[in-house]
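Cross-check.
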Amino acid sequence: MTIDRGSIDDDLRQFEATRHDITHDDVDGFEDCLKSAKCEEDIQKYLKDHPQLLCVDMRSGHGEWVIPKQKLGIDYVTDFLTCHGDSGGFRWHMVELERADCRLSNKNGDLSADVNHALGQIRDWRTWLENNLQFARQPKQKGGLGLHEIRPAYPAMIYIGRRKDITDDFNRHRNQLRDNAVYIHTYDSIVDTARRFATTYNPKDGEGGFDGNGGIRFSIPSTESEG
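Predicted model, tokenized:
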């Protein structure tokens, strides 16, 4: 398949973001948002205004993009689609947000209603993509959605709740879901990883960051904190 680089740039340019822009103020504001948010829309709005925070799970050398409220036909709207480019092409993630005060599991050990709602959203989005894949991938200038190389089986990220509410039962369930490329994290995972990027790329006085000679004094772990 021949890729029209110009169409890709036109479709994605407005959604460019990078983890290199994360600052401690961004992370402080996000923590305040999580404490005060009345609904998931409050969190969605903050992340829309600070899309770099959703770049923390990307491993990219060829661009990063964060698309808010992507419509999938007339029935569905994602919270976000994120994408990064690498030597193999484009890697997409579906992102579903739930409230920060949601329960993660019930007393009987089953996943909570809020987690199951999020899983239902992911299933609906994937089914829609399976049935409308050509339209989704088609450049916008040709009437499509411009989601180049997207696949229904690409990973889905669910952000919900806080780390303090994690239980052994919840961990058991979410480990099983990884077999279907569904990854459930609490919002603390964004906070922790974003904080490390801020320390590296935009350090406060006395922190690590770059050494002025192109080297990094603070090393970012290859995997995020579990949460």
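The domain at 5-201 is CATH 3.40.91 (Restriction Endonuclease). The beta strands are 64-68, 71-72, 76-77, 80-86, 89-97, 156-159, 182-185. Passed to J.P. for a second look.
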